[in-house]
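queue> holo job accepted (zinc ion)
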Amino acid sequence: MAIRNIREIGDEVLTKRCKEVTEMTPRVKELIEDMLETMYEANGVGLAAPQVGVLKRIVVIDTTGEDPHILINPRIVESSGEQTGQEGCLSVPGKSGQVTRPNYVKAVALDVNMKEFELEGTELLARAICHELDHLDGHLYVEKAEGPLQDVRYDEDDSE
Ligand code: ZN
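queue> job finished
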């Protein structure tokens, strides 16, 4: 496993639409392991493949530090409610912004065995799912932020 370089806002790779994963290969497995390691090392709660420069529809999310979710070709099939709160991103270091998201989402994705599963989340997990899936279509939270971004101290950053 290896820590990968996290791409930052301004990098074109973060604006591209990612491609579906069609088969699990050793290379894709290694990418997923590296994404998890990179996310944990950066104290993030989520990371999408384009953030490490790979245009594949893969995200990893762990909002508690002990519950990793790997989502391949994910899509949101249900959402409800609303939450407004501060959001950060490992690709936008030192900043946060207020973003309104659904308070509940249900996603359908493939796991590392390319088997379909559902992931339901509320509050932070729902926010993380929405945030990471946006990355796969080339969108950053800053496009949705209400008002100006705020400076946050790096060690307090709840980045995704
Ligand atoms: Zn992000």
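queue> The chain has a mean pLDDT of 95.
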